[in-house]
Backbone:
C-alpha cells in the first residue's frame, strides 16, 4: 500500500509500504480523508530529523476487524482519536480521566503508515463511529476536540469579551464556539497577509480583527479595557502578548506547542500578579469530546466545510503540501481525499 512520509525541512514523499497483520483488538481502516495539521507542519518544518509517516486527523471505513473486536463492523465510518485514557489508572478511578495520558496512543504505534495513506491500523478503542457527516467533516473531529478543550479550559461566561489569538483551523473553530457561548464580543488576532483566514473570522462573527504585526495588543487592551478571555492557538512565545490583552481577572487558555529552543518563552510576572490573571494549559491528551464534536457539527454550531482550502490525492501529496505551505494568503486547511 502507499503512504506519505515527511522529513525536515519540508521534504515529502509517497512510499510503497507493507501492511502488517492485525492484532486481535485492532481494525484496518481504508482512509478517506486526512487533514494536514499544525503539528504535522512543525515536524515538516524543523522537528522531524528522519523520515516518518504522518497524519492523525483522519476518517475512513472499517475494512477488516481483529478477532476480539465487537463494537465495530466492516463498513462502519470512523474517526480515530489520537489517544484515550486508561480506565484503570488512579486518576481515572478518582474521576479525572482527562488527567491520564498513558492509555493507548495512535501517535506512538510506530507503524509504516499513518493518516496520509491508503490504509491504517488502529485499536478499536480509539475509533469513534459517526454517521450523517461527510468524511471530510469526520476528519475534523480530532482538531475540533482540541478546540473544544481550549474553549472549556477558558471557561467563557455570559457577557465576556474574548480574543482568539491565531486563526488556524483550531482558532477558527474556537472562535465559532466562543461566539455561541454567550460572549459579548469576540475579537480575532492574526498576522496580516493571511487573507482567507481573516475573511473566515469575519464570516464566523468576529467583532474585529487585530493584525499582531501592526497593532500592539497592550495598546488594544488599553483602548478597550482588555478582554476577559484569550484563546491562544499560536506558538508559545505569544502567551506573554496574550496576558497583556487581558483585563483584571482574565484567563489565558493556550495550546500551542513547539520543540527545542522554541518551547521556552518569558512571562512578566508583574502583569500576571497585578491583574490577577490565570494562564491555563489546554492539552487534548487524552483525546476527548468526539461525540460532542459530532453533535456540534450536525447542529451547525461549528461549520468546518469552509475551512478546507486545498484538496489533493495521496499520490500528489509532495507537490500539494508544498503548494499549500507556500500559499499563505489563501491557505487554511489542506486535506487529502482518497476516492
Residues:
Amino acid at each position: 500500500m502507499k503512504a506519505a512520509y515527511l522529513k525536515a525541512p519540508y521534504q515529502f514523499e509517497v512510499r510503497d509500504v507493507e501492511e502488517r497483520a492485525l492484532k486481535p483488538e485492532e481494525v484496518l481502516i481504508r482512509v478517506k480523508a486526512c487533514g494536514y495539521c499544525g503539528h504535522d507542519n512543525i515536524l515538516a518544518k524543523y522537528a522531524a530529523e528522519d523520515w516518518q509517516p504522518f497524519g492523525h486527523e483522519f476518517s475512513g471505513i472499517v475494512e477488516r476487524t481483529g478477532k476480539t473486536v465487537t463494537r465495530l463492523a466492516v463498513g462502519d465510518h470512523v474517526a480515530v482519536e489520537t489517544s484515550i485514557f486508561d480506565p484503570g489508572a488512579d486518576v481515572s478511578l478518582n474521576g479525572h480521566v482527562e488527567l491520564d495520558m498513558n492509555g493507548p496512543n495512535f501517535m506512538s504505534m510506530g507503524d509504516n503508515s499513518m493518516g496520509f495513506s491508503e490504509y491504517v491500523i488502529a485499536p478499536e478503542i480509539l475509533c469513534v463511529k459517526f454517521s450523517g457527516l461527510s468524511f471530510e467533516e469526520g476528519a475534523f473531529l480530532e482538531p475540533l476536540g482540541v478546540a473544544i478543550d481550549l474553549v472549556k479550559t477558558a471557561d467563557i461566561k455570559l457577557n465576556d469579551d474574548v480574543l482568539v489569538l491565531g486563526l488556524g483551523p483550531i482558532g477558527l473553530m474556537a472562535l465559532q464556539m466562543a461566539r455561541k457561548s454567550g460572549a459579548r464580543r469576540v475579537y480575532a488576532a492574526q498576522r496580516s497577509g493571511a487573507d482567507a483566514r481573516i475573511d473566515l473570522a469575519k464570516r464566523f462573527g468576529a467583532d474585529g480583527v487585530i493584525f499582531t504585526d501592526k497593532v500592539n495588543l497592550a495598546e488594544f487592551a488599553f483602548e478597550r479595557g482588555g478582554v476577559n478571555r484569550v484563546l491562544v492557538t499560536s506558538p508559545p512565545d505569544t502567551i506573554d502578548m496574550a496576558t497583556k490583552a487581558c483585563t483584571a481577572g482574565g484567563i489565558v487558555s493556550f495550546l500551542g506547542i513547539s520543540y527545542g529552543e522554541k518551547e521556552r518563552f518569558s512571562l512578566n510576572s508583574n502583569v500576571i500578579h497585578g491583574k490577577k490573571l490565570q494562564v491555563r494549559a489546554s492539552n487534548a491528551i487524552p483525546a476527548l469530546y468526539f461525540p460532542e464534536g459530532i453533535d456540534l457539527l450536525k447542529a451547525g454550531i461549528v461549520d468546518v466545510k469552509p475551512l478546507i482550502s486545498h484538496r489533493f490525492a495521496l499520490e500528489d501529496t509532495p507537490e500539494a503540501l508544498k503548494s499549500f505551505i507556500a500559499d499563505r494568503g489563501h491557505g487554511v486547511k489542506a486535506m487529502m481525499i482518497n476516492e
About this structure: The mean pLDDT is 95. The longest helix spans residues 141-154.
